[in-house]
Automatic annotation (TrEMBL):
This is Hsp20/alpha crystallin family protein. Residues 42-153 form the SHSP domain. Transmembrane segments: none annotated. Pfam families: HSP20. It comes from the Bacteria. It comes from Sporolactobacillus shoreicorticis. InterPro entries: A-crystallin/Hsp20_dom, HSP20-like_chaperone. PROSITE patterns: SHSP (PS01031). Belongs to the small heat shock protein (HSP20) family. The lineage of its organism: Bacteria, Bacillati, Bacillota, Bacilli, Bacillales.
Length: 153
């Protein structure tokens, strides 16, 4: 007979903490809150916009993807050996529901910027920019960087 006496103290059952945590999160304790947070961060880029830097035989080229950006909302600054691209997008939307007559007004302001460090000095007089089909292209001649070294007396 292998039956235990109910009066004997029983040993506590060992639990695995990791299994308990997995079971907790698989039960969806927060509803769809975590999914909505994941969706928000996957649909919003906080790193800015895609930028590509490359060379041709005689010039450097910076290309930035800015789909939907208005030409007037793009600012380019040349800072030594750096190119700073900033985009401000101010969108205003109004709508009125025909059946209920509910009026809504929404305004959204987005700002994104990127700074690209070039391996060359920037010749401001010969650097040009163009914006076509959502692609900003900035290019200029390759000029070696001049050092700003200080000699020691």
């Amino acid at each position: 007979m292998d039956s235990k006496d109910p009066r004997e103290p029983q040993q506590p059952k060992r639990r695995n903490l990791m299994n308990d945590l997995d079971a907790f999160f698989q039960s969806n304790p927060f509803g769809d809150v975590l999914k909505s947070i994941d969706d928000f961060f996957s649909n919003h880029s906080f790193t800015g916009f895609p930028v590509r830097l490359y060379d041709t035989n005689d010039e450097w080229v910076v290309e930035a993807e800015l789909p939907g950006a208005d030409r007037d909302s793009i600012r380019i600054e040349l800072l030594g050996d750096k190119v700073k691209i900033a985009v401000d997008n101010d969108v205003e939307m109004e709508s009125q529901h025909q059946e209920t007559g509910v009026y809504s007004h929404e305004r959204r302001f987005d700002h994104a910027e990127r700074v690209v460090t070039l391996p060359y000095s920037i010749n401001r007089a010969r650097t040009q920019a163009s914006y076509t089909n959502g692609i900003l292209k900035i290019h200029g001649p390759k000029s070696p960087k001049t050092g700003h070294n200080l000699s020691i007396d």
